[in-house]
């Protein structure tokens, strides 16, 4: 993919893993150390495998494939989908060498053949074809740093909730029709409000 500066983004790393044993099929640049996040004397170690990382000169972008629909920037900002944000953070800390910069990252819909969502450095996104006309997700440097800090806070909030045994049935929207647990789920949407433990719930 060519941007306004004449740079061509091409796949540089495929199935790049971090925090996992490097196995056949993974990129040879994969690393075994995890992404380590620290806050309030607590540490969380995150492992993962990135579908694709593209490169153009000194700039890198993360690409995660989705079969059909892609999470939006709103999902990222609200903390309901942090995948790409964590992949970007992992690549920044564990893959980028001196002089490399993460331009951003997002999702690619296989069925829709389009790129959507994610977070991008605005000064670079202006020259990237599929981001040039976008507004949501194109961030100033200050916004970029603030969002990364908020992502870390969200992660620690979720970890503390899990440790406390808090698993509220509170999805951010309607339950998808393909969910195999929809007939026994405690979450219901009735008359425009959320209800837990109502009549007929398991």
Proportion in β-strands: 25-35%
Biggest sheet strand order reads 1-4-5-6-7-8
Which sequence of SSEs, written as H and E, runs from N to C? EEEEEHHEEHEHEE
Which regions have little confidence, pLDDT < 50, spanning 5+ residues? 189-202
Instruction: Please bin the fraction of helical residues.
Output: 10-25%
Helices, by number, come to 4
Question: For the report, how would you describe the main beta sheet?
Answer: 6 strands, mixed
Compute the number of strand runs.
Answer: 10
- Principal-axis shape equals globular
Radius of gyration: 19 Å
Distance between the termini: 50 Å
Can you walk me through this structure?
The chain is 22% helix and 31% strand. It is built from four helices and ten strands, in the order βββββααββαβαββ. It has helices at 73-78, 83-94, 122-125, 141-163; strands spanning 10-18, 35-39, 42-46, 48-56, 59-66, 101-109, 114-121, 138-139, 187-190, 193-196. Strands 1-4-5-6-7-8 form a six-stranded mixed sheet. A hairpin with a 4-residue loop joins β6 (101-109) and β7. It is globular and about 50 Å long. The N and C termini lie far apart (50 Å). Mean pLDDT is 85; it is low at 189-202.
């Amino acid at each position: 993919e060519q941007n306004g500066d004449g740079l061509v983004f091409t796949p540089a790393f495929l199935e790049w893993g971090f925090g996992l044993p490097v196995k056949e099929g993974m990129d040879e640049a994969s690393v075994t150390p995890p992404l380590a996040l620290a806050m309030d004397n607590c540490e969380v170690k995150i492992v993962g495998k990135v579908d694709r990382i593209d490169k153009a000169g000194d700039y890198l972008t993360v690409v995660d494939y989705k079969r059909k629909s892609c999470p939006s920037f709103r999902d990222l900002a609200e903390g309901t989908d942090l995948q790409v944000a964590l992949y970007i953070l992992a690549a920044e800390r564990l893959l980028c060498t001196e002089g490399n910069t993460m331009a951003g990252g997002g999702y690619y819909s296989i069925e829709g053949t389009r790129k959507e969502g994610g977070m991008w450095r605005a000064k670079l996104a202006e020259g990237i074809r599929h981001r040039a006309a976008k507004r949501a997700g194109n961030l100033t440097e200050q916004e970029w740093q603030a969002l990364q800090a908020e992502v870390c806070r969200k992660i620690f909030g979720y970890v503390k909730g899990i440790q406390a045994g808090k698993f509220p049935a509170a999805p951010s929207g309607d339950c998808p029709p393909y969910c195999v647990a929809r007939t026994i789920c405690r979450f219901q949407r009735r008359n425009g409000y959320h209800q837990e433990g109502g009549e007929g719930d398991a």
